[in-house]
Amino acid sequence: MATTPDTSLAARAKYEPVIGLEVHVQLLTATKIFCSCSTRFGNPPNTNVCPVCLGLPGALPVLNRRAVEFAALAAMALNCRVNETSIFARKNYFYPDLPKGYQISQYDKPLAEFGRIDIPAGSGTRKIGITRVHLEEDAGKSLHEGFADSANATAIDLNRSGVPLIEIVSEPDMASPDEAYEYLTRLKEIILYTGVSDCNMEEGSLRCDANVSVRPRGQKEFGTKTEVKNVNSFRFIREALEYEIERQVSVLESGGRISQETRLYNPNEGKTYSMRSKEQAHDYRYFPEPDLLPLVVDEKWRAEIRSRLPELPEGRRARMVAEYGISERDAQVLTSTRAMADQFETAAKAAKSPKRVANLVQSELAGRLKAKNLEIAESPISMAGVALSADLVESGTISSKMLKDLFDLCFERGKDFPKVYEQEGRPQQSSDTAGLEKIIDEAISANPRQLEQYRAGKKTIIGFFVGQVMKASKGQGNPQLINELLTKKLES
Ligand SMILES: [Zn+2]
User: Fold this and answer.
1) How many CB atoms lie within 10 A of CB 401?
2) 130: β partners
3) Residues with Cβ < 8 Å from 76, sequence gap 6 or more?
4) Which pLDDT belongs to residue 431?
5) In this structure, what are the phi and psi dihedrals at residue 391, rounded to the nearest 5 degrees?
6) For an engineered disulfide with 115, which of 91, 123, 130, 225 has Cβ 3.0 to 4.6 Å away?
7) Average confidence score pLDDT of the chain
């Protein structure tokens, strides 16, 4: 949890936060953006390198077509306009993991602009603008541990140097850490749907920097912003922003000034620390990259890329609400990843009753996941398991009470439903034959007219008796067994 400086609520209420986010997403191409080295994560240090990504003099970059397509696809999914012509630029700075002394990025003519993401807000949605999506290369990595002599030296691994990234820059449209969290959640979801990145934060394929300032409520001009860098989970970003907003308010309230700077978040302490004064764009001496032609993505190519856009989460939710009669909230859980939504739909279509699958997910599964603090992707019960359990209830083989017990066992044992169902010896509801026979006898003697009709050849009247027996057994009887026993009695 973030520990916050002591700012009174009244002071806090006088100010309004302004938040903008910069998200770097690593593209899932097999090779790097300007050379044919592998992008594979976790290979031994400095094995995926060549003269281009090592920044050796005279080596020339060649643009990876796939990276452009992935970037444009992501941009389209974020409702951006993909520009016909964009320009690569050199961003000059020195860092040990940047051997060329500059990063190839895009500056005043980015690949795509003017996008948006709608985030849930109250009972409606709120539009968060996306300023731009541009392509750039990643830098290498400085290693401070995990090798001999790491106490005295830092090593450089250039495997990541030249891995393709897109940077997604939002408008400063978010007014609270919660909105920033929502925006990031939606953004990640959309990118995952497009399949252009795995968005794995632990491996650094999704990184987020947050710009935040506060201003007196009602004031038009922005306050001075700080940038919180390299926070490695959405939850920490929310906490870092909460801390940073409180800090800025307390500085202003005590008559101080905010200095424009880059700050780092320490999640253990819940605090941000000043790292360096924030550089301005002109510090980088951007200029057009002389070794690359302008990037042209013409109408035909754009159409080709657009045709590969999958159904996106928002549209899919709307369709699933209509198709399976589930709530908006449940649709949100079920569409949180494309794999999850696919699994659910496959299960729902394979099951006898899609609605029952949806209901089980909402009630029995969601409740247990919440109690165990698990994400649906971590559920011991797969969607195929849910589908099987739904069918067993649907056919009357097991009762809803038995389903609840079996689900409990699945969670206790961390095993999927089909497995536990087998382990428990494929239980069936009410095989209490004697009890059922008694109820059947009563049903028959209470309805002599129907018995007569049955014996006169109207066999379909058995449905009436099944209904009577089910009612008398309070729905606990197994319909198949009731049917068998009834037929025997009626025929005798
Ligand atoms: Zn290379």
Assistant:
1) 11
2) 115, 170
3) 82, 112, 305, 306, 309
4) 62
5) -65, -40
6) 130
7) 90
CA 179 to ligand 1 centroid distance, Å:
39
Q: How far is the C-alpha of 311 from the C-alpha of 325, rounded, in Å? A: 19
Write out the H or E segment, with its range, that includes residue 257. Answer: none
With tokens 């993909």, the residue in question is 82
Give the DSSP per-residue string, 188-245. HHHHHHHTS----TTTTSEEEEEEEEEEETT--S----EEEEEE-SHHHHHHHHHHHH
Position 16 confidence tier, pLDDT thresholds 50, 70, 90: very high
Report which of 40, 304, 287, 333 is spatially closest to residue 159, judged by C-alpha positions.
40
User: So what's the pLDDT on residue 194?
Assistant: 95
How high is the pLDDT of residue 303?
98
Residue 46 C-alpha to ligand 1 middle, in angstroms?
10
Report, as an integer, the average pLDDT of 162-174. 97
Surrounding ion ligand 1 within 5 Å at CB are: 35, 37, 50, 52-53
Mean pLDDT of 38-46: 93
Which structure tokens are listed for 439?
A: 């109820």
How many Å lie between the centroid of ligand 1 and the Cα of residue 29? 13
- Strands 271-277, 261-266: parallel, antiparallel or unpaired by DSSP? antiparallel
Ligand 1 mean position, distance from CA 34 (Å): 7
Task: Please tell me the distance between residue 67's alpha carbon and the centre of ligand 1 in angstroms.
Answer: 15
Q: Kindly state the tokens that stand for 428.
A: 């069936």
Per the listing, tokens 């620390």 go with 273
Rounded to the nearest angstrom, the distance between the alpha carbon of 39 and the centre of ligand 1 is 9
Cα separation, 4 vs 146, in Å, equals: 34
- pLDDT number for residue 2: 47
Distance 65 CA to ligand 1 centre (A): 15
- Residue 6: band (very low, low, confident or very high) from pLDDT cuts 50, 70, 90: low
Pair 68, 62: CB distance under 8 Å: no
- What is the 137 CA–ligand 1 centroid distance (Å)? 11
Q: From the CA of 71, how far away is ligand 1's center (Å)?
A: 20
Measure the CA dihedral 70/207/107/194, to 10°.
Answer: 20
* Ligand 1 centroid to residue 189 C-alpha, Å: 30
What is the CA(61)–ligand 1 centre distance, in A?
Answer: 9
CA of 232 from ligand 1 middle (Å) equals 27
Measured in Å, residue 445 CA sits from the centre of ligand 1 at: 87
For residue 83, pLDDT beyond 70: yes
Q: What is the pLDDT of residue 354?
A: 79
- Cα–Cα distance measured from residue 344 to residue 350, given in angstroms and rounded to the nearest whole number: 10
Q: Determine the distance separating the centroid of ligand 1 and the alpha carbon of 293, expressed in angstroms.
A: 19
**What is the CA(304)–ligand 1 centre distance, in A?**
28
Report which of residues 27 and 2 the model is more confident about: 27
Burial class (CB in 10 A: 0-12, 13-18, 19+), 272: buried
